[in-house]
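User: Quick sanity check before I run a bigger batch. Here is a single chain. Can you write out its predicted 3D structure?
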Amino acid sequence: MRALVFHGNLQYAEIPKNEIPTVIEKAYFPVISKLIKAEIPFGLNVTGYTLEILPNEIISLIKEGIEVGLIEILGTSYTHAILPLLPLNRVEAQVQKDKEVKEKILDTSPKGFWLPELAYDPLIPAILKDNSYEYLFADGEAMLLSNHLNSAIRHIKPLYPHLIRAQRGEGFVYLNYFLGIRELKRAVKLAFSGKVALEAVKEIDAVPVWVAINTTIMLGIGNFPLMNPKKAASWIKEKDEILLYGTDIEFLGYRDIAGYKMNIDSLLMLLDHLNDTVCLPSELKHSGRRLYLRTSSWAPDKSLDIWTKDEGNARLNMLSIGLEGELAFFAENSDARGWEPLPERRLDAFKAIYKSWRGEDEKS
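Assistant: Done. Predicted structure follows.
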């Protein structure tokens, strides 16, 4: 058994706001409708904010999928905030607001929680358990690399550095890509099956998200050089009780990677090559493992540096402390601090902070 999760966030750092209707048309509608038509179950992790602005046609599709048992709705933070960077009252506010929206619009209460950017610390499971969550999704590679907890003493090195260099266009790109593919295949072999129990302030079960497996799927269905759906399937055919795909729905039909397009039809082709049953993520079996997971994210070095070290990010993080109410949610949106955010996304957070400081009407 293997599972799928699709993450949707219409505050995406690198997508212009005027492109939102196109994103819905090219990604959200075909992915959700074709999976339902093919009777393939999947987890759907859309932010509460995204759910509020999706058109009725998509909401109806999602409800249909829930009713027939093909869609498992997952919780997350309302505006995709990086939870380990927030005060605890704001962590809980993000969690509760997202859950309230999903209960109101979809009439369902999620039991699984997707950590935005898989950013984690050992306090978060306690807050999730306090709010009736039963399990979460966490970075599998960070689990493997949590045997040493002080990154100032021992820095985490990426498992496939050449592939990362190729993605960034550094050096001799094709050579880095070729070497990176070999590194990626070795990283896939490190993935273990099943859920784990995380030793935290309150213990919670977790589904490992294996970035190497996710990347393999994406390279395969995008028909990157040396890769195709059949080859990607052959790399992971021995891996059972795992999450196959767990990233942005926008990559399937809307966004390309280095000029290569992925779509839902290619993903369905890969599933045919695997010739295995797909289950809802909550149905994945437990491995029996118990482990401690360090404060981390699914960045290549497993750190939170992407959202903290840049001067603009540091300023936003500092100014957001102490904010309350609706405007705080938009000041905390992680996509203002994203990998390569657009100015309009960053300005949205600064504007929310300014309006909150001035005491302006939150709906203005």
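The two ends are 48 Å apart (CA to CA).

User: Great, the batch can go ahead then.
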